[in-house]
Amino acid sequence: MSAILQSYNLAYISAPKCACTSIKELIFRIENNCDFNKVRDQKGAIRLQINGKRHYIHNFYPTIAYEEQPLHLLAKLRCFCVVRNPLDRIVSCYWNRVIRYGELNPEKICNLEIDAPANPNLNEFVIHLDQYRKSPQINHHSLPLTHFLGNKPDGYTKIFNLKNINQLPKYLKQYFGKTRKLFHLQAKISESQSNTAIDMLTAKATQQIRDQYSDDFKYYARYF
Length: 224
Prior knowledge:
This protein is an alpha/beta fold. The protein is 43% helix and 11% strand. The protein is built from 13 helices and six strands. It has helices spanning 20-31, 57-60, 71-74, 86-100, 106-109, 122-127, 129-132, 136-142, 145-149, 168-176, 191-199, 203-212, 214-220, and strands at 3-5, 10-12, 47-50, 53-56, 78-83, 158-161. It has a four-stranded mixed beta sheet, with helices on one face. A two-stranded antiparallel ribbon has the order 3-4.
């Protein structure tokens, strides 16, 4: 249910590929007055290791569909979220899940009945995204913003984007009375690299993203 912090009158509703790992870790550190354990797995994911068991940050603050959220609680709280232009978000999904984590290599997709090339390039990934969503990880990280955030942006007290995300610690201090530095914990490409990657999208791929994520543009474009 993301981070529902009733004692602070605050809720963070998360969406994948919108800095959610970094934000969840920041909230964990503030809420528990400690730093998250720096132990990482072989892929670089942060985990808290307790009594030999690994606990990942998303176990504490899971990202779920908006309709599965405790909406009766959210109605009483001041909610915030982070949004991202779908073009940039899908490029990030490709960079992170396909290139970094190899989610679409032949070994991982051999039993998924995906009718599209393994290890696709960026345009192949976009054009065949419906096929690649048979991979649970690709599906989770590429579902529309509206799937996770709903379609009523006016219901949020504050909506950040990746350009003003560094204002988040100051925002949280209003509620917690303290703050900590926001670390960028997932490997990411620079803004210039992202723009270059977006420029590499064909007209067909670009239009496909705009069509598939039309509701994201409709409800959240003014916040990008």
